[in-house]
Amino acid sequence: MKTSFVLPADIEPVIRDPKATPPGHRIDLHHSMCFGCGSEAPVGLRIEVIAGEGLTVTAAMKVEDWMQGGPGVIHGGVLSAAFDEVMGTSPLLLRKPVVTGHLEIDYAKPIPLGSTVHFTGEILGGVRRKVYTRCVAHLGDPANPVAAAHALFIAIDLEKHFSGYRERAVHSQHQNGA
Question: Which residue from 17, 33, 94, 131 has the least number of CB within 10 angstroms?
Answer without folding.
Answer: 17
